[in-house]
Every structure is written in structure tokens, then in C-alpha cells.
Amino acid sequence: MKIELNDSALQARLQRAFERYSQLLEAQFTKEISAKQFTWPTTTTRGRTNRKGKGREDAGSPRDIIDSGAFRQSQLRTPIDNGFRFTWTVPYSYLILKGYRTATGKQMPPRDWIKPALAKLPPLSTLQKLLL
Known about the structure:
With 132 residues, the protein is of the alpha+beta class. The protein has helices spanning 7-34, 70-73, 93-98, 114-120, 123-131, and strands spanning 44-46, 57-59, 75-80, 83-88, 100-101, 107-108. The protein has one domain.
């Protein structure tokens, strides 16, 4: 008896599943950033005003992470050797993730959009489903 396994077909299928997972995760990061789920100690007026003077809103708590949209738009998914890298290129992205203290000493809370996305799309179980 002889059994032959073709690993190139399996490799291609795994690569497609991983590509699809990275796309799903990218979309989930955007959903988490856009969800009104983060506590915030102050109310902030944000957004742009249209010609009629409308479009700005007062954001309190819970809120999303979108003030101008620059942070959400800075999200990049880049292929690397054996996977993908996600980056947020605005210089304040780490401050959003970890929180910060203002010049007047007020502590601004962290807003972690990564952990909830990974909790909703766990890598191993999601990849298993994509391979079926």
C-alpha cells in the first residue's frame, strides 16, 4: 500500500484561509474602532461642519474612537514573509491604545480595539472554520 500526500495543495488552501482571515480581522478592527463602546471622562465636540453648519456632534461616553477619521483611515494591512502586519500610522495610535495623561494631569483611558477584535475572531478557531 502506498499513500501520497500533496502538501502544495494544502499549503495553497492554508494560504487562502489565512488571507481571508486577515481581511476579516481588518474589517473587525474597523468595526471595533467605530463602535460606541469606550468610556470617556469628558464630552468632546468633534466632526466637520457642512455648509449648513451641521455635522458636528458632542461625543460623550460610551463613544467610538473617531474624532476626525484620520486614525481609522491610517489602518494598514501589509503582507510580510509568512503572514500579515497591521499598523495604525498616525503618531497618536499608541496613546489611544494605552491611554495618556494630559498636560493638566487628567488621565485619559486606554481604548483597546485589538483585544475585542481578536476575541470575536480567535485565530485558530476562525482559521479552522475557513478551512472547512
